């Protein structure tokens, strides 16, 4: 009853999303055009960027495991990154009304850069490829934690900013494409609109090769094919991951600070400023008890959307990448098997996020229920490890891994699009940050649960 009733209430609130911008929005022909889809591309790149540092650390785990054989590197990285990111987000939620998202995001990118630059420098000047220099391990774990702080600052801010604008920008951040609004009954209009959507989907797929998960998978395949899997090859691979991440971070800093100059972004920022000023005139400054009351109202509005996202990532992280990369084996594909599975997951995760441009499930009750339905993946994957012989072969495991990625991408994108539209415009950023908080809690729980996966 709890999930169903609350999800139904959340679905009823979906009707409010149409009025999110309505009180302040003039006729649609006065909204500045997103020329060349530049704002969309920038938000897509921003969404790609804040995931790359984590992917760089976890993809270079082969090299770190070689350097520090007595440490459970991948799991320690996961727990440190997720828990510190969670604490960072809690502070941001508490003080979002007193801080500027522009400052938070720029500080976050600088912290990302410091950590990403420091790791290869520590390796070059201190560790020097030697096994067992655990001072380097503790420094590396510290830099992982620094990236966790940066992730909270950047991800919360970027998703919060996207939540203040139409759905297409949240789709861009979550790696989806956009055409928002309900379709008219006119068949000609529907056909034209869907052609536009498909054109944007092509744009997303082309740009999507740079999405962090797919990009890192491509790099992993290339480095494994080109470099020998010895000390020198692993070191070169790890350095390449960090170099690519540094380049993307620099690009994101430029893009983010350019975005505010674009007419379409300025337009929606002005709408938010007007909404904030109107609320101040009506209620006064949001401080103390008034802010806490407002914050709880926001949490109440998005809690079931957030719960759906949380359970999505508890399920995903408890299975992927740990069990997929460590506990399934192939005599035919050998050590290429986990790489193929990771690539398959990342590609289908991107496809799932892109599918929202063709069909966006606007029924919140159904989307939340489907998110909880993903719990079925746990017994199914258990069957792939301990069930009949056929279920443990390459085809069923690969198909299930791709389905895990597809459903993860689609339902994450749907819920993150719908959630900020349930509150007033001036609170959409905070709603977006709260949803990210649920996401990070799911990641943290999932990364811990992965330690106790029954093998």
TrEMBL record:
Major site of localization recorded for this protein: membrane
Protein name: Equilibrative nucleotide transporter 1
InterPro entries xrefs: Eqnu_transpt
Localization: Membrane
Family per similarity comment: Belongs to the SLC29A/ENT transporter (TC 2.A.57) family.
Keywords, in A-Z order: Membrane, Transmembrane, Transmembrane helix, Transport
Pfam families: Nucleoside_tran
Topology of this chain in the membrane: Multi-pass membrane protein
GO terms under cellular component: plasma membrane
Single GO term (MF): nucleoside transmembrane transporter activity
Residues spanning the membrane: 38-56, 76-95, 107-126, 138-160, 198-219, 239-259, 302-324, 336-360, 372-391, 397-419, 431-454
């Amino acid at each position: 009853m709890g999930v169903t009733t609350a999800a139904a209430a959340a679905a009823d609130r979906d009707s409010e999303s149409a009025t999110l911008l309505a009180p302040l929005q003039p006729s649609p022909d006065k909204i500045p055009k997103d020329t060349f889809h530049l704002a969309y591309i920038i938000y897509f790149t921003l969404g790609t960027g804040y995931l790359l540092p984590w992917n760089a650390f976890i993809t270079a785990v082969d090299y770190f495991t070689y350097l520090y054989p007595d440490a459970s590197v991948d799991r320690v990285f996961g727990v440190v990154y997720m828990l510190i990111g969670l604490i960072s987000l809690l502070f941001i939620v508490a003080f979002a009304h007193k801080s500027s998202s522009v400052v938070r995001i720029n500080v976050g990118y600088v912290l990302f850069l410091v950590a990403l630059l420091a790791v290869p420098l520590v390796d070059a000047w201190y560790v020097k490829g030697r096994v067992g220099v655990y001072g380097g391990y503790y420094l590396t774990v510290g830099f992982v934690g620094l990236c966790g702080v940066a992730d909270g600052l950047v991800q919360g801010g970027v998703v919060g900013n996207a939540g203040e604008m139409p759905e297409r920008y949240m789709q861009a951040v979550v790696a989806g494409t956009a055409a928002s609004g309900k379709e008219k009954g006119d068949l000609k209009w529907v056909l034209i609109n869907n052609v536009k959507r498909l054109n944007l989907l092509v744009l997303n797929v082309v740009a999507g090769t740079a999405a962090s998960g797919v990009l890192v998978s491509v790099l992993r395949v290339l480095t494994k094919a080109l470099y020998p899997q010895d000390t020198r090859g692993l070191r070169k691979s790890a350095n390449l991951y960090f170099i690519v991440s540094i380049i993307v971070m620099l690009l994101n800093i430029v893009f983010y600070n350019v975005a505010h100059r674009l007419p379409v972004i300025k337009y929606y920022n002005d709408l938010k400023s007007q909404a904030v000023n109107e609320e101040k005139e009506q209620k006064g400054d949001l401080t103390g008890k008034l802010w806490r009351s407002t914050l709880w109202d926001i949490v109440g509005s998005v809690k079931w959307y957030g719960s759906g996202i949380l359970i999505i990532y508890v399920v995903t992280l408890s299975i992927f990448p740990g069990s997929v990369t460590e506990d399934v084996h192939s005599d035919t594909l050998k050590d290429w098997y986990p790489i193929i599975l990771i690539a398959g997951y990342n590609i289908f995760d991107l496809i799932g996020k892109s599918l929202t441009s063709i069909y966006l499930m606007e029924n919140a009750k159904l989307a939340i229920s489907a998110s909880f339905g993903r719990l079925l993946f746990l017994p199914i994957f258990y069957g792939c490890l301990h069930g009949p012989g056929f279920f443990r072969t390459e085809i069923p495991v690969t198909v299930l891994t791709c389905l895990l990625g597809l459903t993860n991408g689609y339902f994450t994108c749907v819920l993150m699009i719908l959630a900020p539209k349930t509150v007033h415009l001036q609170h959409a950023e905070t709603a977006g940050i709260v949803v990210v908080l649920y996401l990070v809690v799911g990641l943290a729980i999932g990364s811990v649960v992965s330690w106790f996966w029954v093998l």
